[in-house]
């Protein structure tokens, strides 16, 4: 296996607070890696450093062996790092397929000069991407009328339009009903297996994490306290201490559902 992403000593301070402290890990090609931890553990800060939104105070990030520390989000995106967000960013007035076509146009650097012909371009590839996420039957529907779970699947197709080497997914199942969450993560796991994409995701729903992640890393107060497979993480005394105190390790969070 080859290393896609590697961090060494990644650290971020906010004044006197060390939000992420000396975090080193690597992610292999084709791996579905979860980053978990209680509220305020440093997951988003870590993600934002990987995507270039935040500069590390210390430490390095390498992508496919090249250092990307301190590059802008656009430069990192251009190198093949895609991202999905907690809040979906689709164009409500456009159809499902048009949203994917726009992403493909952007990927090919064609957005501004040929917008008038956009609806004719990349249709075949857009349809193939929609098929990958099970949305081909909804291609001509407007995004405004889509169910929340379908929007999340569309968002995945949009992220894949960029043909990423690495996909960062920040709480991909936030706001979804439990059954939809498992389905979305299963879909992601299938895509990882079939397309060879690597995925790093943060998630509060432990059922989703333990069902699908190949490996799990646990952050607590900015520090990486465990890194291993589901069984090793379940049995890790430090992880149990962090989670069982709050009682959230094996219970899905059901707040804020759009079911
Ligand atoms: N821009 C900022 N300025 C100051 N402190 C920040 C900033 N961003 C994050 N923090 C602090 O850094 C710590 C880690 O926050 P972060 O959002 O990374 O945690 P998280 O694990 O993503 O939490 P959650 O699960 O609640 O989203 C917290 O104490 C937070 O208050």
From TrEMBL:
<dbReference type="Pfam" id="PF12399">
    <property type="entry name" value="BCA_ABC_TP_C"/>
</dbReference>
<keyword id="KW-0547">Nucleotide-binding</keyword>
<keyword id="KW-0813">Transport</keyword>
<dbReference type="InterPro" id="IPR051120">
    <property type="entry name" value="ABC_AA/LPS_Transport"/>
</dbReference>
<feature type="domain" description="ABC transporter">
    <location>
        <begin position="5"/>
        <end position="246"/>
    </location>
</feature>
<dbReference type="InterPro" id="IPR003593">
    <property type="entry name" value="AAA+_ATPase"/>
</dbReference>
<dbReference type="InterPro" id="IPR017871">
    <property type="entry name" value="ABC_transporter-like_CS"/>
</dbReference>
<dbReference type="InterPro" id="IPR003439">
    <property type="entry name" value="ABC_transporter-like_ATP-bd"/>
</dbReference>
<dbReference type="InterPro" id="IPR027417">
    <property type="entry name" value="P-loop_NTPase"/>
</dbReference>
<keyword id="KW-0067">ATP-binding</keyword>
<dbReference type="GO" id="GO:0005524">
    <property type="term" value="F:ATP binding"/>
</dbReference>
<dbReference type="InterPro" id="IPR032823">
    <property type="entry name" value="BCA_ABC_TP_C"/>
</dbReference>
<dbReference type="Pfam" id="PF00005">
    <property type="entry name" value="ABC_tran"/>
</dbReference>
<protein>
    <submittedName>
        <fullName>ABC transporter ATP-binding protein</fullName>
    </submittedName>
</protein>
